[in-house]
């Protein structure tokens, strides 16, 4: 069809890369399987910088279902590149072995993410807490005993939010499981950037399209 750009979201990891070898136009990865979601990471980084004024030196906790999260992977790679310290937090069954090894991403300066299985221990030093949706539709096995147990150990509720430093912010890529990984009082609090993330996503994706379609190599 001669498209100048194709935005692709696909259940198979690597599909956008494959498509890019078949077409002459630009290919934008809008999420491929459990692999990557690059524009989400860009808008998350922009939101952090807008709220906190910097990225270098920030301590960012990415919490929850990291195993199935393309958002977590893209954020871990991008934030490490930009100088932030990333800690992955969740039950051992939901931290993938390749990220658990804390190996740097190919071509990325710095080190890979740290790993913790104790959310309460991480919160007092976190500048940013990014909660991830529990992706039940991707789970073919029992990764944790029950939703109630998961919320008790890894859900961000009011008391846990108050353990954060005064300047810290709470993020979520959406959609949310309210009452499971994040409590309504946290999602709707002044610390929450969730609405900003949605708005910033429009601007960031417009910028990506502009850069790819602006006529310059």
From TrEMBL:
Naturally occurring in which organism (per UniProt): Phytohabitans suffuscus
NCBIfam families according to UniProt: PRK00856.1
Protein name: Uncharacterized protein
Keyword annotations of the record: Pyrimidine biosynthesis, Transferase
Pfam families with a match to the protein in the record: OTCace, OTCace_N
Domain Aspartate/ornithine carbamoyltransferase Asp/Orn-binding, first and last residues per copy: 57-212
Family the UniProt entry places it in: Belongs to the aspartate/ornithine carbamoyltransferase superfamily. ATCase family.
Transferase found in the keyword field: yes
Domain Aspartate/ornithine carbamoyltransferase carbamoyl-P binding as annotated: residue spans: 2-49
Classification via InterPro entries: Asp/Orn_carbamoyltranf_P-bd, Asp/Orn_carbamoylTrfase, Asp/Orn_carbamoylTrfase_sf, Asp_carbamoyltransf_Asp/Orn-bd
Record-level GO BP terms: 'de novo' UMP biosynthetic process; amino acid metabolic process
GO molecular function (one): carboxyl- or carbamoyltransferase activity
Any one GO cellular component localisation term in the record: cytosol
């Amino acid at each position: 069809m001669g498209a100048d750009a194709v935005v692709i979201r696909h259940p198979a990891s690597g599909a956008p890369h494959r498509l890019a070898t078949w077409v002459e136009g630009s290919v934008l990865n809008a999420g491929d399987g459990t692999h990557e979601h690059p524009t989400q990471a860009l808008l998350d980084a922009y939101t952090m910088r807008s709220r906190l004024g910097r990225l270098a030196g920030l301590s960012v906790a990415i919490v929850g279902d990291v195993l199935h999260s393309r958002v977590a992977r893209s954020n871990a790679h991008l934030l490490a590149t930009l100088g932030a310290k990333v800690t992955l937090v969740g039950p051992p069954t939901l931290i993938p072995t390749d990220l658990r090894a804390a190996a740097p991403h190919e071509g990325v300066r710095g080190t890979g993410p740290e790993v913790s299985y104790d959310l309460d221990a991480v919160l007092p030093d976190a500048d940013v807490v990014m909660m991830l949706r529990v992706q039940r539709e991707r789970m073919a096995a029992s990764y944790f005993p029950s939703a109630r147990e998961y919320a008790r150990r890894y859900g961000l509720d009011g008391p846990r939010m108050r353990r954060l430093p005064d300047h810290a912010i709470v993020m979520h890529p959406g959609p949310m499981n309210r009452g499971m990984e994040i409590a309504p009082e946290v999602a709707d609090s002044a610390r929450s950037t969730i609405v900003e993330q949605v708005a910033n996503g429009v601007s960031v994706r417009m910028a990506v399209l502009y850069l790819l379609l602006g006529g310059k190599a």
